[in-house]
Amino acid sequence: MKSKNHKLEENELTVKSRTENLSAIRNFVSAGALEIGIPLKIVENIILAVDEACTNIIKHAYKYFPEGEIIVKLKFSREKFTVIIIDHGVPFEPETIPDPDLQTYYRQHRVGGLGMYLMKSLMDEVKYVSVPGKYNQVLLSKNLLTTH
Amino acid sequence: MKFDIPALKINQKFQTFIVLSIVLFGFKLFAPGSDSITYLLIDDLLVGLTVAAFIFYLMDWIHLKKINPLNLVMNIGIFTAVIFLLITFSNTILRGLATENNLYFPKTGFISNLVVFAYSFIILGSLSYIFLAFRELYSLKQKRDINTYFNTMVVFFILASYSTLLQQSSDLLYIKDTFFIISILLIIINSIKISWIAFIVKKEKKILLFLSIIIAILFVSNLVKNSGNNNANLLDQFSPALNQFFNIIGIYGAIYFSILFFTTLFHIPTAEAFDRKAQEVTSLQYFSKLITEVLDFDDLVKTITDIASKISNADAAWIAWQENGGLKSVGNNSIGFLDADLITSFVAENKNKYNLNETVFISMDKFQKKSQLGESFSNITVSPLRAHNELKGYLLTGKKNNFLFDDEDKNALDTFSDYASIAIENSRLFEESIIKERLEKELDVAREVQRKILPSKNPNYEGLSISTVFIPAFEVGGDYYDFFEIDKYTFGFVIADVSGKGISAAFIMAEVKGIFESLSKTIKTPKNILIKANEILQRTLDRKNFVSAAYGFIDLKNETILISRAGHCPIILLRDNSIENLRPSGIGLGLNFSDHFSNTLEEIKIDLKENDIIVLYTDGITEAKNKLLEDFGSDLFEKILIENCDKDADDISNKVIREVTLFSQNHPQHDDITLVILKWKQKLKIDGEKEWQNSTLQPKI
Amino acid sequence: MAEFNASTKDLGEVSVIYLQGYLDAHTAPSLENTFSNLIEKGKYCTVVNFTELAYISSAGLGVFMAFIEKMRENNGDIKLSSMSDKVYNIFDLLGFPLLYEIYKTEDEAVNKFIESKNLEK
Q: Does residue A100 lie in a domain region?
C-alpha cells in the first residue's frame, strides 16, 4: 500500500502570455486542486499564488509580449500539491525580490513586489530556476499533511 | 568587424554555403577560362564568398561543441596532415594531369575541372577549419576583449589574398607584398597570445609539446611543397586569392605552433607545481565562498550547485536532499524541477547498483524515462553528501548532448562535495542552535511573565478556604487566575485561558490581568466586567487569538455567588455529594465584537450553603492525556471531586492533581493545568458593619 | 458575463465604487479608469464597496496603492467597506489595514466622510 502513495498524478495547461488568460489558469488550477479534495480555503490561496506567479511572468519574463507561452503543470502526491509554471521569457529572480515595506511603497507609489510576498506567504515552498536560453520554472508547493 | 549573422540559422548558413559552392562549380565548369581581370575577380569573389559561408557555418558548430584546446590542436593537426597528403598526392599523380591539362585540354575540360575542383575544395574546407580553430585558440582564456587585433589581422589576410589579382601588372606587385608582410607581422603579434596553455594540466602539456612540433613541421613542409610546384599551379589556377590564403595560413601555422612548442617546453618543469597550486587556490576560494553562505540553506545549496557545475564543466547541477524518507531536488542550477526530479528518482531507484561512496558517473542510456526529460541529459555524476558519516543527500551534475565527464571532473567533485557536506552541516547546526536558543529565551521570558502575573499567595478569609494549583506546561500555556478584593463584603475571582502558547500567550495574559484588575475596581457585576473586557480586547487581540474566562463575585454578607462565563469550562458547584455544572452562556473574549456578545452573555446568582464547593479549572485537567492519548475527562474529574467533597479545599485539590498526574504519567504535559477550589465553610455571623470590619473581612496575608 | 465590473454611485461629496467579480492583472486597468474618472471630476472622497468582489490579486491591490495618495493630497480618501473574510485576509496579509480605513458597512464609511467634512466646517 505504501508504494502506491508515491505515485504522482499529472496535469498540464498551456496558454499564451496574456492577462486575459489568468482566469483560465485559475480555473484550471482550482479544478485540479478541488478534484483531489483540497479544502476550498487552501485552494483559494493556491490559485492566488499561481495568479501572482503568472502575472509576474507576463510582466517581467515576457514584458507584455502576448505570444509567449505559459505552461502550468500540476503534480500531487498525498503529502504535497505542487504547481510548476514554465515560461520561455527573460529570466528574473523572484527570490531576490525583497519583502515589501508597505510604508515605503506608499510613499514611492510602488506596487510591485506585493505578489512575490503573497506567494511566499501563501505557499509552503516557492522556488525558481532558470535554464539559460531554454526556459524558466517557478515551483509553488503546498503541504497537505499539516495538522492545522 | 564581427563574425556574426544572427538572422541566419545554422541550417540556412549551410544552405548558403551549398548554393555558393554550386554556383562556383557551375561558373568553373561553364565560364570560359580566361586570364582577364574580370574573370579572375568574379572567380576570386565567388571563392571568397564560399570560404566565408563555410566559416560562418563552422563557427556556430564549433561554439556549440565547446571544444577544449587540446582537441582543437589535434583537429588542426589532422587537417594539416590531410593537406600534406593531398599535396604529396597531387605532386605524384596529378603532375601528369596538370601538365597534360595545360598542353592538351582547355581549362574548361570537364574531368580535369572536376578533379581540380574537388582538390581545391578539400583544401578550401580544411583551410577554413584551421582558420577558425586558430580563432578559437586565440580567444581562449583571454581576459579582455581583444578581438580587434585578430580582426585587423583578418582584414589584412583578405587584402593580401585579393591583392594577388594585381600581380598581372608588375608595377603594383609591391602592394601585394606590403599586405603580405603586414599580415605576417600581425601573425607574429597574435601568436604570442597563448595564455591558455597555463590552464591545462601537466599530462596535456606533454601531449601538446609532441603535437605542436609535429604540426609546425607539417605546416612548414606544406608551405615548401606549395611554393613553386604543382600544387600551387592547381590552386593558383583555381583561385590565386585562395592560394595566397593558403600561404598565409601556412605561415600562421608554422609560426604559431613553433611558438607554442617553445612556450610549452618552458612550462613543463613547473607544470605540476602550478597544477597543485591552482587546485589549492580554487578549492580554498570555493570553500571560503561556502563558509560565508551558511546563514541561509537555500542560498547555500544554490552556491554549491553553481560551483559544482563550474568545476565539472557540467551543463547543470542540483542536490538531491534527503527529507521525510525521500529525495528532494534543491538548489537547481540550469535544470528544471521536473528534469531534476526524474533523474533523481532514477538514481534513487538504482542506488544499489552503483557504489555511491564516492563520485560516480552514470550514463542516461539506461534511463527509461529519458524521453520525458525536457532536455537531453546524457551523462550525470552523483557525489554523496555526508555529515557525521550519515548520508544527507547527493550532489548531482549533468552534461547534455553526449558529452562525457572525465577523471579530473570526478576528482574535483570528490573534493568539492566534501567541502559542500561540511558547509551544509554547519548551516543546519547553525540554524538549529539559533532556533533552539530563541525558543529557550522566549520560554524563559514567558515563564517569568506568567510567574509574576499569577497571585503569589491566596487570600485568607475566615469562612472561605481557597486552594489553588497551577502546573505550567513546558511551553507556557496561557492559563491565568486571580482574586480581587472588590469591597469590604465582596470577593472577586477570575480564571482564564488564552489561546496559543509561549511568549504571545504570556503577553496576552499580562494584558488580560491588567484589564481585569482595573475593571474589578470600577464595575459592579461580572457580566459587565466581561463585556467591557471584550471591548478593550478588540483593540489589541488580532484575529487569531481569543481568551476564555469565567468571572465571579462572592458576596460574603449575603452569602451569594454571582457568575458570568465567556467561553470557559463550566464552573462546578459541589453540594450535598452531587455535582452541578454551572453553564451561564457566553462567547469567548475576542471572538465577537458586536452586540451579540453582550446579548448572549448570562449572569447567574446562587445562594451559598454551608460546605458548598466551587471548582474552577482549565481544560488542562480534563484534556490531560495518558500514553494512549485518552483524555482524563470530566467524568473521572467529577467522580474524584464527589469522593472527596467532605475534605477541605487543599486536600481536594491535592487529590485531583495526584490522580491527573498518575493518569498522564509517561505522557508529556501539553497545556497548563489550573485548579481553583473555593469552599464555603460556615455562615458568617454578622450583626453590623463594625463587626464586619473587625472580624472577618480583612484578608490575613 | 463580464469577469469584473466597477460601477460608481454619486452621493454628492462622496462617491461609492461597487466592485463585482474578479479583480486581477487583467481587470485592474478597468478599476484604474474608474479612479481616474473620479479624479478628473474632482471627486476625492471614495468609498469602495467590496460586497460582490469574489477575488483580488496583488495587481488589484496595487490600484488602491496607486491612487490613495492623490486622493489624500486633495483632502479626500479611499475608504474600504464590506469585505468578505477571504478578501480581508489578503489585505491583512499585506498590512493594508494600517494604511487604509476598512469598515464593515458602506454606510459606516460614508458617514465617516460626512462627519469629518462637518468637522471642517
A: yes
| Closest-approach residue (CA) in chain B for A131 | B334
Instruction: Report the C-alpha gap between B415 and A84 in whole angstroms.
Output: 34
- Closest among B92, B128, B90 to B112, alpha carbons compared: B90
Chain A nearest CA to B486, separation (Å): 42
Residue C80 amino acid letter: L
Instruction: Give the SS3 label for residue B485.
Output: strand
Look up the CATH superfamily of C4-113: STAS domain (3.30.750.24)
Domain layout of chain B by residue ranges: 10-274, 292-432, 454-683
Compute, in degrees rounded to 10, the torsion defined by CA atoms B178, B183, B189, B190: 170
* Grid-cell match 600534406, residue found: B84
Distance CA(B45)–CA(B409), nearest Å, equals: 47
Q: Which ranges of A6-143 would DSSP assign to H, the alpha helix?
A: 22-35, 40-56, 102-108, 114-122
Asked if the C-beta of A78 comes within 8 angstroms of chain C's C-beta atoms, the answer is no
Whether the predicted pLDDT of A5 surpasses 50 = no
In a domain, A2, yes or no: no
One-letter amino acid at B456 equals: S
Which residue type, as a one-letter code, is found at position A143?
N
Q: State the CATH architecture for B292-432.
A: 2-Layer Sandwich (3.30)
Residues in chain B predicted with pLDDT less than 70, given as ranges, are: 1-10, 31-35, 63-67, 91-110, 112, 141-146, 167-170, 228-233, 271-284, 287-289, 291-295, 543, 682-701
The low-confidence residues of chain C, meaning pLDDT below 70, are 1-2, 121
Q: Check if A4 contacts C (Cβ < 8 Å).
A: no
Retrieve residue B546's grid coordinates: 481569543
Strand pairing category for C14-23 and C45-56 = parallel
C-alpha cell at A64: 507584455
- Reading the block at residue B135, the C-alpha cell is 580563432
ipTM score assigned to the predicted complex: 0.90
| Residue A148, domain member (yes or no) | no
Domain residues for the domain of A96 are 9-143
State whether residue B563 is helix, strand or coil: strand
Burial of C109 (0-12, 13-18, 19+ CB in 10 A): buried
B250's grid cell: 601556412
In a domain, A16, yes or no: yes
Cα–Cα distance, C57 to A45 (Å, whole number): 10
Report the candidate in B416, B411, B343, B336 with the shortest Cα–Cα distance to residue B378: B343
Question: Does the beta-carbon distance from A129 to B324 stay under 8 Å?
Answer: no
For chain C, which residues make up each domain, given as ranges? 4-113
Residue A67 makes CB contacts below 8 A (sequence gap 6+) with A16, A17
**How many pairs of residues across A and C have Cβ atoms under 8 Å apart?**
71
CATH 3.60.40.10 fits B454-683, yes or no: yes
Percentage above 70 pLDDT, chain A: 78
Domain count, chain A: 1
Axis-axis angle for helices B10-30, B110-139 (nearest 10): 150
Q: Which residues of B touch A135 (CB under 8 A)?
A: 336, 374
- DSSP for B148-179, written as a single string: HHHHHHHHHHHHHHHGGGGGGSGGGHHHHHHH
Express each pLDDT in B542-564 by its tens digit.
Answer: 767 789 999 999 988 888 999 99
Of B205, B218, B314, B186, nearest in space to B260 by CA: B205
Contact indicator for B655, B593 with CB cutoff of 8 Å = no
The pLDDT, as a whole number, for residue C6 is 94
Which member of A22, A103, A106 has the closest CB to residue C25?
A: A22
Cβ B336–A79 below 8 Å, yes or no? no
Touching subunits of C (3+ CB pairs, under 8 Å) are A
Q: Does C11 touch chain A (CB under 8 A)?
A: no
Q: Which of B338, B401, B629 to mutate to test the interface with A (most CBs of A within 10 A)?
A: B338
